[in-house]
Amino acid sequence: MRKPTHSAAAAAQASRLSGLLLSIVLLSGCSSAPAPAPRADIEPIRFLLSFDDGPSASSTHNPTAQILDTLADNPIQPGIKALFFVQTRAPTAGGSTQGQALLRRQQREGHLLGLHTATPGHANHRFLSPEALEQSLSDGVADLQAVSNTAPRLVRPPFWNYDERTFAAYQTHDLHILLTDLSANDGKIWGINGSLRRRSNLRDQLAQAAQQINVGALPAVDGVIPVVVTFHDPNPYTARHMQEYLQILMDVAEDVGLATDIQPFYGQRDTLQRAALRRALGDPQQYARLPGLWNWLWN
Q1: CA nearest neighbour of 167 among 176, 158, 180
Q2: Stated pTM of the model
Q3: Cα–Cα separations (whole angstroms), residue 197 to 133, 201, 202, 207, 222
Q4: Which residue ranges form the domains of the chain, and what is each CATH number?
Q5: In terms of C-beta distances under 8 Å and separation of at least 24 residues, what long-range contacts does 124-127 make, across chains too?
């Protein structure tokens, strides 16, 4: 019998190693723990979708318009209503002709408008003088009231940054800060603006929210627990993958053992606003976990 050549022996060894690795993978898949069962004593969750920095001023393949199309028509829950935190005077957002048209569409289709800023750019409110901040808030409230015939009640500070001074300024305009539980980390609009970790990122954040829910730290409103999720509607990647994001949210809720309501997303503007106001920050000294690096930077 011929002795196997070195190459043949190496091939045989590689084949055995490949078989071993395949067995490990298969066994790992078979032994993975099932998703935890939702607790019957806890209300189901409902995702409160929010979007920052828009509306987009793009005249072609407008991402804000694409997101509105997906919210209106998708296989998970047609007619989803969302909360849009608007830059009312930025030339690349609400200060454009296209942006103004989209604001009117958002209002017409039953979404809720909140204030992000009314400065010409995405300015940090903490770095504005008291006079400039007051002017921005007055302008922003007036801009949104002109679209919706009612003053906005919600604000999300640019860069998630606020202090006692800006908090008090918001209160003088009856504006309440809404932060977030989950973030898609999609604030980078241009260049490489997608995420290979979008599923694991949202799962990890929802697992942290589940811990709060399980100890009763997140309130129920209208029989459901609102879980705030933040996206950026000027992001073309987010727009193209919006339906996938909706499914991911459903999947990761099951992964972490949270039951979703029969209506897993908000479908009416008034119930959405009630939930958002209930989740709004009540005290500037209250610890709030911010998304991504902002938590390290501001806290």
Answers
A1: 176
A2: 0.85
A3: 36, 6, 8, 15, 33
A4: 45-294 (3.20.20.370)
A5: 124/157, 124/158, 124/159, 124/161, 125/157, 125/158, 125/161, 125/162, 125/166, 125/169, 126/157, 126/161, 126/162, 126/163, 126/165, 126/166
Which tokens belong to 224? 């459901």
Q: Write the DSSP symbol of residue 91.
A: T
Q: 26-55 in b/e burial notation, b at 16+ Cβ within 10 A? A: eeeeeeeeeeeebeeebbbbbbbbbbbbbb
CA–centroid distance for 40 within its chain: 27
What is the per-residue pLDDT across 82-105, written as a single tens digit (0 to 9) for each? 999 999 999 999 999 999 999 999
pLDDT exceeds 50 at position 80:
yes
Helices (H), the chain: 6-31, 63-72, 97-108, 130-148, 164-172, 198-214, 236-240, 242-255, 269-279, 293-298
Collapse the DSSP code of 263 into the 3-class scheme (helix H, G, I; strand E, B; otherwise coil) and give the result. Answer: strand
How far is Cα 297 from Cα 299, in angstroms, rounded to an integer? 6
Condensed to tens digits (0 to 9), the pLDDT of residues 272-285 reads 999 999 999 988 76
Asked if 287 and 299 touch (Cβ cutoff 8 Å), the reply is: yes
Residues with Cβ within 8 Å of 126's Cβ and at least 6 positions away in sequence, in order, are 157, 161, 162, 163, 165, 166
Q: Tens digits of per-residue pLDDT, 144-161?
A: 999 999 999 999 999 999
CA-CA distances (angstroms) from residue 266 to 38, 130, 207?
Answer: 21, 36, 21
Task: Classify 3 as helix, strand or coil.
Answer: coil
Place of tokens 């935190």: 85
- Extract the tokens encoding 45: 């969750």
